[in-house]
């Protein structure tokens, strides 16, 4: 090492090697092993095991049993859930499908029931009812018609 | 073995349990006897302080004691221990950055068996070492780690690669780059003086 350092000024590589060799040659302090052993004996093996590590060890050790229990629980939950689900929904009578009012759901064929009765006006007529004579619709002359709408002349004479 | 079989084997694998506390104690005693010097060198290469390095080695074996259940699962004990030591040393170094430098490289140079030289030579040598070490600290973390671990004769390139969780070729290139960069820094420093 003496020689290396005599020539180290000219060779960075040698300088690097010599410095790195310091670590390779570093001697552990005397009685290091005894001191380590003494410290290990002072340290109780389970003193530093916290709850998380103990729980982790337990889970790892009993993983087959825990996995089986979790599977059984999941199966029970599925069965109970499906039974409850089927009991909640009673089937409506066939033919008449009443959709819940205001729910927004329901088939197009479902019967809609108005929330309150609809009153019929006194002189009402249905929309489809037309005054027709001789099977033809008639439009009075003074009827207001939008521009561009061609209405054929009525063949029947107008009533006075 | 298919992946499914491997998974099933993993589920039903029960780790070998170390039977008694005496077994554990024997194993750890053997580990201390075999690896304490290597671990001390690893810790020293990072901290450059003998007291801290010793403390880190002790802490490493305390960790082994605390995780004694994992001992059966460890494939390469040396790599595992060096990795623990390296991480502990880095943590310690990071924490001690606020404190003044406590490196005792001069003490190490004096204590080396080959250090049979005059007092002024020793001072020059330790100064040179300190200069190189200061430049090593300027290297990128990965290259510095590879370079420092490569200095330990006990560790092969494959083991260093395992410690650094990378490939052997990557480690070789990191060491090469680190040495080249370090040589460049040394040359620049010398020319500027």
What does this structure look like?
The complex is a heterodimer of chains A (160) and B (193). With 160 residues, chain A is mainly alpha-helical. Chain A is 42% helix and 2% strand. The radius of gyration of chain A is 49 Å and the shape is elongated. Chain B is mostly helical. Chain B starts with a helix and ends with a helix. About 3% of the residues of chain B have low confidence. At the A-B interface, helix 2, helix 3, helix 4 and helix 5 of A face helix 2, helix 3, helix 5, helix 6 and helix 7 of B.
Features:
A: about 160 residues, two-stranded antiparallel ribbon, about 40% helix, elongated, B: about 190 residues, mainly alpha, 9 helices, about 0% strand
Report helical residue fraction of chain A.
Answer: 40-55%
Got a strand count of chain B? 0
Number of helices of chain A: 5
- Distance from N terminus to C terminus of chain A (CA atoms, Å) equals 139 Å
Taken as a percent bin, the fraction of beta residues of chain B is: under 5%
User: Oligomeric state of the chains?
Assistant: heterodimer
**Most extensive interface:** A-B, 39 and 56 residues
The strand order across the widest sheet of chain A is 1-2
Low-confidence stretches of chain A: 1-8
- Principal-axes geometry of chain A comes out as elongated
Q: What is the count of DSSP helices of chain B, taking H or I runs of 4+ residues?
A: 9
What is the straight-line distance between the termini of chain B?
64 Å
């Amino acid at each position: 090492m003496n020689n290396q350092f005599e020539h180290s000024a000219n060779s960075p590589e040698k300088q690097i090697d010599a410095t790195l060799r310091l670590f390779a040659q570093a001697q552990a302090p005397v009685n290091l092993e005894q001191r380590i052993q003494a410290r290990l004996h002072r340290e109780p093996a389970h003193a530093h095991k916290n709850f998380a590590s103990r729980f982790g060890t337990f889970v790892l050790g009993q993983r087959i049993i825990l996995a089986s229990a979790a599977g059984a629980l999941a199966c029970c939950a599925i069965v109970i859930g499906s039974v409850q689900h089927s009991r909640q929904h009673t089937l409506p009578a066939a033919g008449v499908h009443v959709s819940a009012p205001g729910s927004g759901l329901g088939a197009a064929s479902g019967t809609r029931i108005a929330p309150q009765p609809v009153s019929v006006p006194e002189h009402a007529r249905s929309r489809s009812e037309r005054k027709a004579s001789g099977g033809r619709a008639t439009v009075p002359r003074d009827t207001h018609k939008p521009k561009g709408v061609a209405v054929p002349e009525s063949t029947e004479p107008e009533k006075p | 073995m298919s992946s499914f079989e491997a998974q099933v084997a993993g589920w039903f694998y029960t780790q070998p349990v170390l039977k008694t506390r005496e077994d554990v104690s024997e194993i750890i005693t053997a580990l201390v006897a075999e690896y304490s010097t290597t671990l001390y060198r690893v810790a020293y290469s990072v901290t450059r302080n003998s007291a801290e390095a010793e403390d880190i080695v002790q802490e490493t074996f305390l960790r082994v004691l605390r995780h004694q259940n994992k001992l059966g699962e460890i494939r390469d004990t040396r790599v595992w221990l060096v990795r623990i030591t390296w991480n502990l040393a880095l943590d310690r170094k990071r924490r001690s950055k606020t404190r003044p430098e406590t490196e005792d490289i001069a003490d190490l140079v004096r204590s080396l068996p080959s250090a049979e030289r005059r007092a002024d030579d020793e001072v020059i040598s330790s100064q040179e070492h300190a200069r190189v070490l200061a430049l090593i600290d300027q290297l990128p973390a990965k290259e510095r780690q590879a370079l420092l671990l490569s200095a330990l004769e006990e560790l092969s390139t494959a083991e260093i690669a395992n410690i650094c969780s990378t490939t052997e070729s990557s480690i070789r290139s990191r060491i090469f780059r680190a040495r080249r960069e370090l040589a460049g820094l040394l040359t620049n420093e010398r020319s500027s003086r």
